[in-house]
Design goal:
Strand order of the largest sheet: 1-2
Number of helices: 7
Order of helices and strands: HHHHHHHEE
Strand content: under 5%
Structural class: mainly alpha
Length: about 180
């Protein structure tokens, strides 16, 4: 691995640069290392405070250096916010101040998710999920592509033209 930094080192180095840049701001204004998921308008509408106000409050607490759980717990204890907003404010503050990157969990690991829509009826899907011999097919791309193509090819042929509009109605899928 000569010449290339490991991804974890690259993330850490990038994070340090962003935090140093935020710390070096001379104008007294807060520099956001990373934007929070919720907009400033949304957090203001739901909590009565802006992101910068929340950051100033949390930064003044000793819990700010004690981790995610301590900050979230204090938010819930002292402010009239729901559990969802308590977590959201904590994660937003962590992202703004550089304590957490996008998709990073509170333990420092990263997550990613992928989803896919498949053309299969609910009863068949349920049977496949509970059948050890068939479950693997739900994760095999070639089989899923064939299943989706088959569903599209079995669409009912009763496409009816509406007079004068040029639009069409397509019947339900037979799966």
């Amino acid at each position: 691995m000569h010449g290339w930094p490991r991804p974890a080192n690259a993330y850490g180095a990038a994070r340090r640069v962003l935090i140093d840049r935020a710390d070096d701001a001379d104008d007294g204004a807060r520099t956001w290392v990373s934007p929070p998921e919720q907009t400033d308008e949304s957090v203001m509408d739901h909590t009565g405070r802006s992101w910068n106000e929340w950051c100033d409050i949390i930064d003044a607490w000793p819990e700010a250096d004690q981790g995610h759980a301590a900050v979230a717990a204090r938010l819930l204890d002292e402010f009239d916010v729901t559990g969802w907003w308590g977590q959201g404010i904590t994660v937003g503050w962590e992202r703004i101040t550089g304590r957490r990157l996008v998709n990073q969990m509170s333990d420092g690991t990263f997550t990613a998710a992928v989803s896919r829509t498949i053309g299969i009826d609910a009863a068949r899907l349920r049977r496949m999920l509970y059948d050890d011999a068939d479950r693997w097919k739900l994760f095999w791309t070639d089989w899923l592509d064939a299943l989706n193509d088959d569903a599209a090819n079995h669409a009912e042929d009763d496409v009816r033209r509406r007079e004068g509009t040029g639009s069409a109605d397509v019947g339900r899928l037979r799966t």
